[in-house]
Sequence to fold (203 residues):
Amino acid sequence: MLTLHFAPNSRAVRTLWLLEELGLDYELNKMAFHPQDLKSDDHRARHPLGRIPVLDDGDVRIFESGAIAEYLLERHKNGGLKPAVDSPEYPAYLQWFHYCEGMVMPPVNTIVVHTILLPPDRQDATVRGQAERLLTRAWGPVNDALEGREYLAGDFSAADTMLGHASVMSQRLGCVPAEMEHLTAYIERLLARPAFQKALALE
Ligand SMILES: N[C@@H](CCC(=O)N[C@@H](CS)C(=O)NCC(=O)O)C(=O)O
Fold:
């Protein structure tokens, strides 16, 4: 049995979304996005830094949302959500899958730290402003790539659960300008997917 260790408003939503898209059975260990749960001894035993998502699959325990996605596709792929290695879409799949944690999430983290996590007297508006500009710039190439395309790499794929979820988070943070029309339409398309709606309903 698969068990997803989860908290709302976090990267764990992208894992939940992928599980739903794949139609896999799973149990959810829903925690609060709060140190009381995430930094508890129980959860630190699952992830040394007390982070989410973490997936258990029988004797296997794995963390890092991208690694979990690859693991689910390879071991439980249920017919796809990834272009074939020799398909023309495969390089774009890899690129956008990794662009998520590599380019987009670092400024998202900084913004969240300087708006929500730190007490107001320790928040730095300059640092936050720099991160907001960096994040908005990071979406430019994605907006361009989505011109004339429904999804990032051909059919809907796990790259969309990774970067698509990050695009929704970024829009909530005000870093997806309406002028990025291809990206804005893409976000609306993703939000209409029943599997994503189910994952977001747990937020
Ligand atoms: N690169 C990791 C990042 C994991 C991560 O930082 N998760 C955040 C939630 S979005 C977390 O657990 N934060 C709790 C904390 O920082 O205490 C991944 O993709 O899984």
